[in-house]
Every structure is written in C-alpha cells, then in structure tokens.
C-alpha cells in the first residue's frame, strides 16, 4: 500500500497554514504552503546545503507557473490570487508532494521531488483531463542564507540562456540552472523585480517585506501527451551525483529509496501513520555538509526549517530515527562524529549553520550521549563499537566528577550533579532572549541527575559486559540513587522537586522533567513513588498533543505561544506543550502500569489528527498549552517524530 495523505483544502478549514517539506539528505530542502505564495523566510523550491562558510542557502524562493488554455484564458497555480486555478487536492505520495488543480475544463497535476544527496529540485506538470495550450514558468530568487531576514539586500545575478535553460549566477553563490524539458521549450531572459509580503514574519515581529528577482521565464507546450519537467539545479560540484536525472528518473529513484526505508523499519512502523512518520524521519538524517570533514559522517537536523544539528536533540532522537528504521550503521556514524568533538568532557550543544566548530553550552546533551550509546549497544550487540567509545565515555565521567565548564560538577558531598552559571541556559529548557534566561534552573536539576545516574549505571553495565572492573561505578551509582531519592522527593507535593540546592532553594514547580527518573533504562526513582508521580503528570501536564512544560496551576504558566521573540521565548517552557515528551511519558506509564498499553495507544492516536495540520505528514515542535492546541514553532521536529515512533513501537513490543 502506498503511504498517502490527502488534503482537500476547500472542505477542511485549517487552524494554521498547512505546509509541505521535502529534504535532500544534506540538510537542504524545498518547502512552502500547500496553496499560495511563501509566508516564511524559509519557504522556497531550492534551499541548498552548501559547504562552509555558506551553510544552507535560499536560492529559488518560488516558482510562478501559469497555465494557458486554448481559448486565451490563463490560470496561475498556487499564487493565492483571484486568477488561480482551483486547488482540488493536495496529497503526499510516499511523502512527496502532489497538487491537483482545476483550470477551466483542464485538470493539471504538479509533482515535486529532490534528488537525495544533491542540491537539485525537480518539478513535473501533467494534463490529466481537458485541453491546455502551454505552460509558462517564472522563477523568483533572493540568494541569501536561509535564516536571514527577507529584507536582506538582494544579490542580483547575471543571466545566461542555453536553449530551454536559464542560468542565474551571482558573485557569492554557485550558479543555479533552471532547465525546462517540454514541447517546444524555450527560455527568455526578461529580468524582473518585485516585492513579496511574508505573513508569518509579520506575525513574529520580523521584517516581512522582501525583494525578489527573476532572471527570466521558461515556456513550453503542454497537452495530454506532452508534460513539462523543470529542474532547478545548484551547480555545487562538491555535492557530486548524476547530472542527467530527469524528474521522472528522480521520482522513480526516490520512491525506490523510500520503499527500502519502510522495508527496513520496525514491523509496527510499516503502514498507516507510522509509515508516513518513518518517511518524515528520513528528512532529519543527513550528511552534514557544514562540517569540512563530513565525508561519511552522519548527523541529525533537529527541526525544519531553522534548526541545525543539536547534540541534545540528536541523542534523544537517535533511536527513533535510526535504530527503529534499520539504520544502525548510520547511528554509529552519528555517535562517532560527536565523540570526535568532545571537549572538556562535553559534546557540542549545536553546530551552527556554516560553521565547523560546535558550541558547548549544555549540561544534559553529554549525558544523553551515554543513553544513545546504550541504545545502539542494546540493539546491535556491537561490543567493538562499545570498546571504541569507552575511552571517551570514561573521560567524560572524569570531567564531570572533577568539574568542567559552566559550573557542571559532581557535588562530592552526595554524588549529585550540579550545573549553572549566570546568563547561561544549560538544560533542555533553554530559552534565552538577549540577557534574559527564562528558566535558568541553576543547581541540581531533576532530569540532569536522572541522566547522571543512568550514565553511571550504564558504565557499570558496560564494564561488566567487557570483563572490566565495574565496582567503582556500581558504588557511585548506589550513592547517587540514595541521594536522589532523599533530596528530590517532595512528600508534601507527592512528586519530585524540579531543582534542588538552587540559588532560591528547592523548586517545587510541576514540570515534565521528572519523567526521566522513571522512563530511562536505569530508573533512579524508588518504584514505590512512581504511581503518585505519574498521576500528577497525567492530571496536570498531559494534553492530546504531548506534555505541558509547566502546570496550569503555576503563576508563571503561559497558555499560548505566539508573538514576537520575547513573547514566544517567554512561554517556550512555561506551559507550552512539547510533542517529544509523549514517549518518556509512555515509557514511564507502562513501567508504572504494565497492563495499560491500551491507554498509551489512545494517547498516541490522539496526536494523529495533527498530521493533517502544519507540517503535513509530520509532527511539529510545540503547541499551545490550551485547546485547540494550535501548532507552533518548527513544522517538523526530529525528536517529535522520533519519540512518537518509539512510543508506537514500544506498545507493539510491550514487555513490561
């Protein structure tokens, strides 16, 4: 069965703009709304992943495609204007976008695909019914870093014509070739400029009016027997690959690749919404061109459109994106790549676009690295891989015990881990606007110490597995566990403190961070306390689309996530729902209630309507904390997709 998701725009009003996205395995992508012009700075038909110092680059913002009928009428496809052809249907077929337009008595289909591993986008138009005379295509461009505001000064280029091919070049970027294959195709160099309004940028308080340049237009005949095929190719020689793929060739090759992805996936993930999310998961696993020594390395893009590869997100998403999808070898490459970048006992928090070096301001990403290594070893039983990583893991533990950057250090009095410095946000609750750290959480944070215990317990397990002395790690793990249960349990609240020994004392805010004291493979919390914790979390934090980041009873609770950067980041972890937390909740619930897998399945099913919203066929980053739980942030987020898949497979394999 072909994984397909069908949207009928006229019959289903959306709560938020519906957007599509396809990716090329390098971090590049093509994306837009299902109908209408771009509304984000990131919307474009060719966003290329280029080597440093460029990074991901907007090259072709939009295509204006106009159908000319034999009676002289003409219809624009997907511009939002009154003269538009009617969009009857949008669908994802194998995760690839297909549009069906009605233009008078003519039915037009448009398909889009990117070549895997190359900065190339192909589009294909077909007449399915009625009669059409010709198709004209005008590309609009604003070459710039993909995250740069839309009012950036344009880098107008030079235009060359080669038959039915336009080539646009500018001094700072590789040339872009626009090649039309159709009946009597021709290219015309008639340069134009215009300005476009981006509604989403205006909503966020950012510049919303931006210039665009068109180098010319392409024209060809279009009838039932002769379609039109457009190739947008960034002449980035370093990307390699085949130069003579047609859109049909590219479509066939990409579908075959996607079929193989499903064939390798966990048995529970090969059909229905789960299969769609396996295809969405593929977009995040990339060969990172923003590192000079990328070669055979792999990484994970944290979310589209604006996130690059983040250490924390990578480690959390690794199992769902790779191990459950039959890509264990790529999982090892990802971990080996991050291991090479360990500094002072820390893995990078992130690798910024266009930069080779990482930023290290994180207290938890390195501890999640232990968890990710543990999942790879448990899945593959590859002891050679474990042996190769053990020196790095041992070095990390030593740095944490002695103390490393950002105030990250084991307290010698109790073995717990503390972290924090003024002006820094080191946990996953990391929102910061200029000098304002929204949730600093300095002190001993609950999930940091759950991860610390899990890491030390894993070290004891691995040393035993490899025939090494595990006693020091067993002793430290026992010490951490005793101190954790003594210090974090809040008897009067019936759940765990979020932070202890902080500048303001102990923080009793009800947040989802305490989930990890139960959900991790080595759970640090006394099982007798699990039912009370889980009851509090289900009653106060669980929503139909994930977990709230703060209880509605808290005075700092924010029910909505919108507005300018200050408003958005001020609510990011103050109530806003995070989809990825559904799996830690599912794990912890099944550990606490082993016979209640049906409840977990119901929780997961409640999230599926979201696949028709926002990023079609994927799961977004965050949601408003209150109904109707509007989707916000990234339209497609790595750990949101990965953790839903992991929770679904967990129900299938339920063994608690």
From TrEMBL:
One of its GO terms (biological process) is glycogen catabolic process. It comes from the Bacteria. Residues 18-223 form the Glycogen debranching enzyme bacterial and archaeal type N-terminal domain. SUPFAM superfamilies: Six-hairpin glycosidases. Residues 280-646 form the Glycogen debranching enzyme C-terminal domain. InterPro entries: 6-hairpin_glycosidase_sf (IPR008928), 6hp_glycosidase-like_sf (IPR012341), AGL/Gdb1 (IPR010401), GDE_C (IPR032790), Glycogen_debranch_N (IPR024742). Transmembrane segments: none annotated. Pfam families: GDE_C, GDE_N. One of its GO terms (molecular function) is amylo-alpha-1,6-glucosidase activity. This is MalQ.
